[in-house]
């Protein structure tokens, strides 16, 4: 029995998986760190920092560019998480 595989369709699925990864790539983290000057963008704290998705990953936010990623301190990241339904 022969099995036919649509290679183009598989490539598309692989690309979609890469785009929707929750993991923030190292190059994006470096860009965000430089842009946000290693501080929380809300209070300028420089300890207990998190890389945060501005539009949450669960709501469709992406990780592959710096446009949707920012630095928040633990307090502001947890406050934000508590408000999002």
Would you kindly provide a brief summary of this structure?
With 85 residues, the protein is α+β, with helices and mostly antiparallel strands. Helices cover 39% and strands 12% of the residues.
Integer average pLDDT: 83
CA distance, first residue to last residue: 49 Å
Helix content: 25-40%
Strand content: 5-15%
Largest sheet: 2 strands, antiparallel
Detailed description of the structure:
With 85 residues, the chain is α+β, with helices and mostly antiparallel strands. The chain has one domain (24-83). The protein has three helices and two strands; from the N terminus they run ααββα. The chain has helices at 7-19, 26-35, 74-83; strands spanning 49-53, 69-73. Strands 1-2 form a two-stranded antiparallel ribbon. The chain is flat, with a radius of gyration of 17 Å. The N and C termini lie far apart (49 Å). The relative contact order is 0.18. The mean pLDDT is 83.
Which SSEs are present, and which pair or pack?
Layout: H1 7-19, H2 26-35, E1 49-53, E2 69-73, H3 74-83
Antiparallel strand pairs: 1-2
Give a quick set of tags describing it.
single chain; 85 residues; alpha+beta; two-stranded antiparallel ribbon; 12% strand
């Amino acid at each position: 029995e022969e099995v036919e595989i649509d290679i183009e369709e598989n490539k598309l699925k692989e690309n979609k998986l890469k785009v929707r990864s929750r993991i923030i790539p190292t190059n994006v983290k470096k860009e965000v760190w430089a842009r946000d000057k290693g501080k929380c963008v809300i209070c300028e704290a420089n300890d207990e920092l998190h890389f945060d998705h501005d539009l949450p990953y669960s709501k469709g936010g992406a990780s592959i560019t710096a446009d949707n990623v920012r630095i928040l301190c633990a307090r502001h990241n947890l406050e934000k998480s508590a408000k999002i339904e």
